[in-house]
Amino acid sequence: MKSTYSSTRLSRPRSRFATKAISALCVGAMGLAIAVVPAATQASASSKTNINYWFWGESDIPGITKWMSQRIATYEKANPGVSITLVPQSNTTIISSFTLASQSKSGGPDIDTQWATLPTLLPALQGDVTPISNYVPSSETKHWLNTNENTIAGKVYAMPLYLIGVPLVWNKKLFVKAGLNPNVGPKTWSQFLADCAALKKHGITPLGMGNQDGYFGAWMFAIYEKQLLNSVTQLTQGVANVGSSQAKLLSSLTTMYTMLAGLIKSGYVNSNVESLSLNQGWQLFPQSKAAMSFTTDGNVLSWAKAVGEANVGVTAPPIWGSGKLASTYDTTQSSDEFLASWSTNKAAAAKFLAFLHTPANMVALNKETGAFPADNRFPTSDITDPLAKALDKLDTSGTSVWLENDIPPQIDSNADLPAGQLITSGSGTPAAAVALWKQQLQKWQLEQPTQFSLFKKWATG
Q: Helix, strand or coil for residue 162?
């Protein structure tokens, strides 16, 4: 989920052989003697399989980098011939760093993390990603959840680690203060607007969000543009400029941005939304400065510790649109792990990734971070917290679509994010936001003809 959760990123030290190097230097009482490393030891060191792992996940799941570091230590101990270097990536480097490495197809990662679907599938279509199903049997991958997000022609290109959903969360105490039923969250858009009006009337900010980085607007696209569509194909073929589909897409975007502009104009979103990042805007909820927010499962559980779990309610985003996708939820694997096509250690890397899905590791992922593992072998009976149970039910009931997964990264960065900023800042109209989309779609088609052609083939096939 393309968020900006601030976190401390843990980096595995590159000098993992320091202890061995020091032990080879023996200091005697009369001077310095250099011990000769036996030939067998030298051969063993040179024959090690070194796996470079570019990892992202802390922004979605605080604590997952520590969990991953622990899994690596366990794996290396059980497999002394394998050494794994963990290199955490940031939101700003996750795509660009792999793109740069793929240009030379040398060095870089053996395993890389990308956001799900197009940030993974476009490199795959360009030959930069090897299907993980080439190395991991279907007897294993059949247990992985949401692999459809990264599958082409029956080939699974990437492995999910966790599932994450985006619910609407509300503060029950603030609902009571506004004269609302604290135990009933808004299910429909009319109910949502009525709740917003009541909260505002009582001096309470209805919805706390931040869009300095463009992510609130992108989330509104993912949640509410989807609700106008009957299928994801309407989006992807619109982006691919198939027939009249792009004109229809731009028309629906106008409707969605008009709705967002209405929320801003009505004062239902915090007035400083444009000066706060998504993460900063989120802090309004645990500080009881906003009654509602769209957020991630992990944040809900974290915020409940601040305001008290009894004061937190969760529901699916209120239904606004009338498309067939309006009733779908928004669970996604968010990010995924894949094999760089030029890696010389693909089999060993795939073996390690499959190890992460062993039941003990999946249970530890949930226990240590609260994340919901993307594996059907995970015993959901382990989830005992009532709020976590409610979130898991939302994540696993029915069909889910996270629409942002299905637009090319360049369109996400240059159209989706800044178009939403035009609306939340009041510096542009819905028409201006849609004009930006149209401009960037045309620019992408002209500047990236090969990528556009691959995307169009994927979108229509």
A: strand
- Tokens 């980096």 correspond to what residue? 11
Q: Does 138 fall in a domain?
A: yes
| Structure confidence by residue, pLDDT tens digits, 412-451 | 999 999 999 999 999 999 999 999 999 999 999 999 999 9
Q: Within 13 Å of residue 153, how many CA atoms lie on the same side as its CB?
A: 9
Answer for the pair 245, 238: CB distance below 8 angstroms, yes or no: yes
Q: Is residue 181 assigned to a domain? A: yes
- Structural domain harbouring 362: 49-162+333-389
Query: In this structure, are residues 61 and 298 in contact, taking their beta carbons and an 8 Å threshold?
Result: yes
Query: What are the CA-CA distances from residue 321 to residues 28, 215, 259 (Å)?
Result: 79, 21, 10
Residues 309 and 386 sit within 8 Å (Cβ to Cβ): yes
Strands 129-130 and 335-340: antiparallel
Contact 301, 284 (CB under 8 A): no
CB count within 10 Å of CB 445 equals 17
Q: Output the DSSP codes for 191-235.
A: HHHHHHHHHHHTT-EEE----TTSHHHHHHIIIIIGGG-S-HHHH
Concatenating the DSSP letter of every residue in 96-159 gives HHHHHHHHHTSSS-SEEEEESSHHHHHHHHTT-EE-GGGTS-HHHHTTBSSGGGGEETTEE--E
Are 211 and 322 contained in the same domain? yes
- Number of neighbouring beta carbons within 10 Å of residue 122: 22
* 435 and 383 in a common domain: no
133-137 long-range contacts (CB < 8 A, ≥24 apart) are: 133/157, 134/346, 135/339, 135/346, 135/347, 135/350, 135/351, 136/350, 136/353, 136/354
Question: pTM for the full model?
Answer: 0.85
Instruction: Give one DSSP letter per residue of 389-457, joined into a string.
Output: HHHHHHHHSS-B--GGGGS-HHHIIIIIHHHHHHHHHTSS-HHHHHHHHHHHHHHHHHH-HHHHHHHHH
Nearest Cα residue to 407 out of 434, 436, 444 = 444
Determine the pLDDT at residue 46: 56
- Tell me the C-alpha distance between 226 and 241, whole Å: 18
- Within 10 A of 215 (CB to CB), how many other CB atoms are there? 26
Is 5 inside any structural domain?
no
Give the pLDDT confidence score for residue 1 in this predicted structure: 53
